[in-house]
Write a structure and sequence with these properties.
The chain is of the alpha+beta class and 1031 residues long. Helices cover 53% and strands 19% of the residues. Strands 1, 2, 3, 4, 20, 21, 28, 29 and 30 form a nine-stranded antiparallel beta sheet that branches. Strands 5, 6, 13, 14, 15, 16, 17, 18 and 19 form a nine-stranded antiparallel beta sheet that branches. It has a four-stranded mixed beta sheet with strand order 12-7-24-23.
C-alpha cells in the first residue's frame, strides 16, 4: 500500500508510463489486423491422387484404401476420410490442434513414400495440400475479355495462368493465387478412324509416333581443346501445324504423315469445370493468404496493386466475385459503433446514479485509457481485431467502470473531512479500497482462466475472448488505482456544491433508492429469523424450476448468423454434359440476380487437378455458388427468408438433382458437412444405398430440416465392357492393351508437351474423332490392334449399360454414405431429438452402424469441456478468495450469490429467443465472476465496519445501506455496456449475443438477491462461528 502513496506523491513516473501506454495503444488500435473470427478449423492435409482412365472402384481398391491405411497410423490423427470418383481420389487426414500442419505434412509425406512402390506405375505423383482457414480465398477475381476485346476465353486462361498469377504472387501477403475455370489450352489431334484403318494403323501407333518424334534428345558431349559442347537432337516443333509432318509409316505408296489422317488444331481441353463471376463466364482467381497471415493485409496488398494490374492488362475485365473484406469491415465498423453506444449508455447510467458531473467525467476518463492499454496488450501478444475480441472489449465496458466508481466513491468519502487535503483523501481512499478492488479483478479473471485452457474448438473461439477480457480487466484495475486518484486530486473538491441539475437528479435518485433500501433491510431482517428456513427452500425451488426450463430454449454449438452471404451447393444429373450443366447454372443465376439486395456472386463447377480452394472433389455436375447480399440492416428480408424463396424457385428448374441453400457459416467448422449429418457405415454399397434411402425418407418427416440429400447414389451410367478372355488369348491381345487402346480412342491421351517460351506449354492430346464414336454401336466397331491385324471390339467383348455410384466415400477405413440436412434457425438439440426419434426403430444389419456426425457431436464435446471449466473456475475462485480474505468461511458467503444468478438465466434466454450455446455457457462462467464482485464489495465493507467495533447486525445493515447504490450502479452499468451485444447491433454479433443475454438476465436477478441473501448467509455463518468459539 505504501507504493500507492509513493506514486501519488510523486506522479511523474507513473504519468509518463501511462502516457507511453496510451500512445502505444493508439498505434496498436490503428495497426491491429482485422478478421471476422479467429482461425478455428482443425489442421488438415489433403492428398490428391490421379490415375488417368481408372474407374472409381479401381481408385478405391488399388489406391485410396492403401493411402487411408497409412495415414490412419500417423500420430494425433482425428479422422481420415476419402472421396473417390473416376480417375481421382481426395484423401484428407484431420489432425488435433496440437499437431499443427508443420508437423503433419512431413508425416503425411513420409507415409506416402512408404507405399509409393505399391501404387500403380501409371499414376500421376500424389500431390499434398495443406488445408486450413487460410485455404478459404480472401478475394476471388473474375477475369474475362474486356469490352470490345476479341480475346477468346482460352487466351484469357493462358494469360491468367502465366502472367496475372505471377503478378499476384509477387505481392506481399499473397501466399497463392489459384486459377480455375476450364479453357486450358491444348493441341488436339483428332484422328479419322476410317483413314486410320485404311492405312492399317492404330491409335496407339499414332501416340507412339508423336511421342517419339516430338522431343529434344540429349546426344552426348563434344570435347574440344579448351571447352566442351553439349549435343542435342532437336525434334520439338515450333508451330502446332508442324506436327502434321510427323511420319506415321513408309510404304510402297510413299510416306504417311499425321496430317494425312488427323485434324490438328490449337483449342482448349474438353472442359470438366467452369467458372462464372457475377453471372458471366470468366476465369476465376482465388487469392489466398499465408497460414498465420491476416486477411486484411492480403486484401490491402491486392487492392493496392489491382489498378496497376488492370492497366497492364487493359484488354481484360477484372471483377470482384467474392471477398471477405466487405463482411469484415462492415462487422468491425458495426462493432466499433456498438462500443461507442456501450460507452455512452454506461456513462449515462453512472451519471444518473452519481448525479455529479465531475465524478461522472472522472469515471469516464478511465474508459479510453483502459481500452488503449487493452489494445496495446493485444498488439504485444499478436492478437487481431475480430468479432470475438471486439466483443470482449464491449463486454468489458460495464465491468471496467466498476473499478473506477468504487475508487471515486471511496476517495470522495475521504474528501469530506475538512482537515484532509485532496492529496491525502486520494491516497487514503485508494489505499482503503485497493485490496477489495484487486480482489474483485483477480476473482473475475480467475473464473476466465480455465476457459483459456479448455481445449478443442471451444478454446479456439473463447480463448481470445477471455484473454482480451482479462487484459481489459487488468487495465481497468491499473487505471482505477492510477489515473483516477491522479485526476481526483484535481477534480474532486470538498467544497464543490451540486448545481441545480445535479440536485434534481439526486432527489429523484434518493426517492427511488430509499424504498428499495428499506425493502431490502426488512427482507434481510426476516431472513435472519426463522423465516430463513422458508425463504431458502423457495430460492432453491426457483433455481430448480428455472434450470428445468433451459431445454425449452434449445441448444446449439454456435447460433445462426446473418452475414448477408449465402452458399448454394447443387448437383445436376450424372449423365448431363458440362454444357447442359452450364445452362442450368444460368437459370439459377438469373433467379439470384433478381432477388432484392443482391450484390455479387461466384460460381465454380467441377474440379481441376492441383486447385484446392475451388473444391477438389466436385464432379463436372456439381458446383458451389457464393452469393453476397446487402447486410441485414439494409435489406427487408432476413437471410433465411431469402433462402426459402430461392429453394422454392430452384425447385422449378429442370435438370437439378439436388440443391442446398444455406447461410455462410451454417456450420462453425469446415469439418462439419452440415448441421445434421447422419453417417451410415458398412461394407456393402448396395445395403448402404438401401439404408440411406430409408434414412432420407424418415428425415423428410422431421420439421425444421431443409434440403435433405445423400452424398451419393447409384445414378451414374457406365458402359461395362466384359472381355472374353479365351478370344483375347486366341487373338494375342492382353486386357491392358485393350484398356489402353479404348482410353486413347475415346478420352484421348497426352502424347507430348508443346512448349511455349515463357509459359507452361500445351499438352498434345490424341484421340479418335469424337463424332465417329458417339454411340455404343460405334464403340463396338472399333478396331482393337492385334498381332495378326485389328479385331472389332464386338468380337472380343460384350457391352452393356450399368448404374454405378456417383462417388465413393469412406471414413475410418470403411465405406460410408451420409444423409445431410440443413436448417433455418431451429436449435440443433430440437432437430437432433426428432432425428433420433425418427431413426429409433430402423433395422440395421450386422456390421452396419449409424452415427450422428453433424453439429451435435461437436456441441456435446464442447459442452462437456465447458462444464468441466465451470467446475474448475469455481474451485479456483474459492481458493483465490481464501487467499485474499485469509478465511475459509468468507469465500462461502461470497460465492453463495452464484446460484442466485442462474435463476434468471433460463427466463432471460426464453424471453430473448436465444438458444443455449457455447457463448451462453461462457456467459454463465463470466456471470459467476461478476456476481462475486458485488458480494466482495458488500462483505468487505461489513468486515471493515466490524473491525472498527460496530456490532454484527448494525454493520450488516449499514453495509446494505452504503453498498446498495454502488452495487446497483455497477450492475446496471454492466447491463448497459452489454446491451448492444444482446441487441445484436453489429453483423456477426448473433454468434455472441447469448453470452450478453445470460449475463444481463442473471445479473438482473442476482443483484437484488445479493443485497439480501448474502448478508443473511453472512449473519448465519458469523453466528455459528461465535457459538463455536463460545462468544
Amino acid at each position: 500500500m505504501n507504493r500507492v502513496e509513493a506514486y501519488l506523491k510523486n506522479p511523474h513516473g507513473i504519468t509518463a508510463l501511462l502516457f507511453l501506454g496510451v500512445v502505444f495503444g493508439l498505434i496498436s488500435f490503428r495497426t491491429l489486423p482485422l478478421n471476422l473470427f479467429p482461425d478455428a478449423n482443425y489442421p488438415q492435409v489433403a492428398v490428391l491422387l490421379v490415375w488417368p482412365g481408372a474407374s472409381a472402384e479401381d481408385m478405391t481398391d488399388r489406391v485410396s484404401r492403401q493411402v487411408e491405411k497409412e495415414l490412419a497410423g500417423i500420430a494425433q490423427v482425428r479422422r481420415v476420410e476419402a472421396a473417390v470418383r473416376d480417375e481421382t481420389a481426395a484423401v484428407k487426414a484431420e489432425f488435433e490442434y496440437e499437431k499443427g500442419l508443420d508437423a503433419a505434412v512431413p508425416d503425411v509425406s513420409a507415409a506416402l513414400n512408404r507405399i509409393l512402390p505399391s501404387l500403380p506405375a501409371d499414376m500421376l505423383p500424389p500431390r499434398i495440400f495443406r488445408v486450413s482457414d487460410a485455404t478459404a480465398p480472401v478475394l476471388t477475381l473474375a477475369v474475362s475479355p474486356g469490352p470490345g476485346s476479341h480475346l477468346s476465353m482460352a487466351r484469357v486462361r493462358q494469360m491468367a495462368d502465366n502472367e496475372i498469377q505471377e503478378a499476384l504472387l509477387r505481392l506481399d501477403s499473397v501466399a497463392d493465387a489459384e486459377v480455375f475455370g476450364g479453357y486450358k489450352p491444348e493441341i488436339r489431334v483428332s484422328v479419322d478412324r476410317d483413314k486410320l484403318a485404311g492405312y492399317g494403323l492404330s491409335i496407339t501407333q499414332v501416340l507412339a509416333a508423336v511421342s517419339r518424334q516430338h522431343k529434344n534428345t540429349p546426344s552426348g558431349t563434344l570435347f574440344r581443346d579448351q571447352d566442351r559442347v553439349l549435343i542435342k537432337i532437336k525434334g520439338e516443333k515450333k508451330h502446332a501445324q508442324q506436327l502434321g509432318e510427323v511420319v506415321m509409316a513408309t510404304g510402297k505408296k510413299g510416306r504417311v504423315y499425321l496430317r494425312d489422317l488427323a485434324e490438328i488444331k490449337t483449342t482448349y481441353q474438353t472442359p470438366d469445370s467452369f467458372f462464372h463471376g457475377n453471372g458471366k463466364a470468366a476465369i476465376g482467381i482465388n487469392i489466398l493468404r499465408a497460414e498465420g497471415g491476416h486477411v486484411t493485409d492480403t486484401l490491402e496488398s491486392v487492392e493496392a496493386a489491382l489498378p496497376e494490374i488492370k492497366k497492364q492488362f487493359a484488354q481484360l475485365s477484372f471483377e470482384v466475385a467474392d471477398t471477405q473484406g466487405e463482411l469484415i469491415r462492415t462487422s468491425v465498423g458495426n462493432l466499433v459503433t456498438s462500443l461507442r453506444d456501450a460507452v455512452i449508455l454506461t456513462v449515462c447510467v453512472i451519471f444518473l446514479f452519481l448525479a455529479r458531473v465531475r465524478i461522472t467525467l472522472l469515471s469516464a476518463v478511465s474508459i479510453p485509457v483502459t481500452f488503449l492499454l487493452t489494445f496495446a496488450g493485444m498488439k504485444l501478444i499478436g492478437y487481431e481485431l475480430n468479432i470475438v475480441t471486439l466483443t470482449a472489449v464491449i463486454l468489458a465496458v460495464g465491468l471496467l467502470v466498476d473499478d473506477a466508481i468504487v475508487v471515486i466513491e471511496n476517495i470522495e468519502s475521504h474528501n469530506a473531512p475538512a482537515d484532509k487535503t485532496r492529496l491525502r483523501a486520494a491516497i487514503d481512499g485508494t489505499k482503503e479500497i485497493f485490496l477489495a478492488d484487486f480482489a474483485g479483478t483477480v476473482t473475475t479473471i480467475s473464473v476466465l482462466v480455465p476457459i483459456m485452457f479448455v481445449g478443442g474448438y471451444s478454446e479456439k473461439i473463447l480463448r481470445p475472448l477471455t484473454v482480451v477480457l482479462s487484459l481489459a480487466l487488468a487495465s481497468s484495475f491499473i487505471a482505477s488505482v492510477t489515473v483516477i486518484p491522479l485526476f481526483a486530486r484535481r477534480l474532486l473538491k470538498p467544497e464543490n456544491t451540486p448545481n441545480r441539475l445535479e440536485k434534481a437528479l439526486q432527489r429523484v435518485r434518493d426517492a427511488m433508492l430509499a424504498p428499495l433500501q428499506q425493502f431490502m433491510l426488512r427482507a434481510f431482517r426476516a431472513g435472519t429469523t426463522r423465516w430463513f428456513f422458508l425463504i431458502a427452500p423457495l430460492l432453491i425451488a426457483a433455481l430448480i424450476i428455472g434450470l428445468r426450463q433451459m431445454p425449452l430454449a434449445g441448444r446449439d454449438l454456435m447460433p445462426p448468423m446473418d452475414t448477408g452471404i449465402l452458399k448454394v451447393s447443387f448437383e445436376t444429373w450424372p449423365n448431363m454434359s458440362i454444357d447442359r450443366t452450364r445452362q442450368v447454372v444460368r437459370q439459377m443465376e438469373q433467379v439470384i440476380t433478381e432477388t432484392p439486395g443482391y450484390i455479387r456472386m461466384s460460381t465454380a463447377v467441377g474440379a481441376e487437378p492441383s486447385v484446392i480452394s475451388f473444391g477438389s472433389d466436385q464432379t463436372p455436375q456439381e458446383g458451389l455458388m457464393t452469393v453476397h447480399f446487402k447486410n441485414r440492416f439494409e435489406r427487408p428480408e432476413t437471410l433465411w427468408e431469402i433462402e426459402a424463396d430461392l429453394r422454392q424457385a430452384f425447385a422449378q428448374i429442370p435438370g437439378l438433382k439436388t440443391v442446398h441453400v444455406f447461410d455462410y457459416g451454417a456450420t462453425p467448422l469446415s469439418a462439419i458437412a452440415a448441421p445434421v449429418d447422419v453417417r451410415i457405415s458398412g461394407p456393402d454399397p448396395q445395403i448402404l444405398d438401401h439404408l440411406a434411402d430409408n434414412v432420407k425418407q424418415r428425415l423428410s418427416q422431421v420439421k425444421g430440416l431443409k434440403s435433405i440429400s445423400r452424398t451419393w447414389d447409384f445414378s451414374k451410367p457406365e458402359l461395362i465392357i466384359a472381355l472374353n478372355q479365351e478370344k483375347l488369348a486366341d487373338y494375342g491381345i492382353s486386357q491392358q492393351d485393350t484398356a489402353d487402346f479404348l482410353s486413347a480412342a475415346t478420352t484421348g491421351k497426352q502424347a507430348a508437351l508443346f512448349r511455349v517460351p515463357g509459359q507452361d506449354g500445351y499438352p498434345i492430346q490424341i484421340r479418335l474423332n469424337p463424332e465417329q464414336i458417339d454411340a455404343v454401336g460405334a464403340l463396338s466397331t472399333l478396331q482393337v490392334p492385334a498381332p495378326n491385324g485389328p479385331v472389332p471390339l464386338a468380337e472380343i467383348a460384350e457391352i452393356h449399360m450399368d448404374w454405378k455410384q456417383t462417388r465413393i466415400t469412406r471414413e475410418d477405413l470403411q465405406p460410408t454414405v451420409d444423409v445431410i440436412a440443413y436448417r433455418a434457425k431451429a436449435p440443433i438439440s430440437f432437430l437432433h431429438g426428432q432425428v433420433q426419434e425418427a431413426l429409433a426403430d430402423i433395422d440395421l444389419p450386422a456390421g452396419y452402424s449409424i452415427d450422428h456426425t453433424g453439429e451435435i457431436s461437436f456441441m456435446e464435446e464442447s459442452f462437456t469441456r465447458l462444464g468441466g471449466s465451470l467446475g474448475m473456475a469455481l474451485v479456483l475462485l474459492y481458493f483465490v478468495l481464501v487467499v485474499t480474505f485469509r478465511s475459509w468461511a468468507h469465500p462461502v458467503m461470497i460465492m453463495s450469490a452464484i446460484p442466485l444468478a442462474f435463476i434468471g438465466v433460463p427466463w432471460g434466454m426464453l424471453m430473448a429467443g436465444r438458444h443455449f450455446c457455447m457463448p451462453a455457457a461462457m456467459g454463465m462462467i463470466l456471470l459467476s465472476g461478476i456476481v462475486v464482485n458485488n458480494s466482495i464489495l458488500l462483505i468487505d465493507y461489513i468486515e471493515n465496519a466490524r473491525k472498527k467495533g460496530t456490532g454484527l447486525m448494525a454493520a450488516v445493515e449499514e453495509g446494505i445501506r452504503r453498498r446498495t447504490r454502488p452495487i446497483l450502479m455497477t450492475a446496471l452499468s454492466t447491463i448497459a455496456g452489454m446491451t448492444p451485444i444482446a441487441a445484436e447491433l453489429a453483423v456477426g454479433l448473433e454468434r455472441l449475443s447469448p453470452l450478453a443475454v445470460v449475463a444481463i438476465s442473471g445479473l438482473a436477478v442476482s443483484t437484488f438477491l445479493t443485497l439480501i441473501y448474502v448478508p443473511v448467509i453472512y449473519v448465519w455463518i458469523s453466528r455459528a462461528k461465535m457459538r463455536l468459539l463460545g462468544n
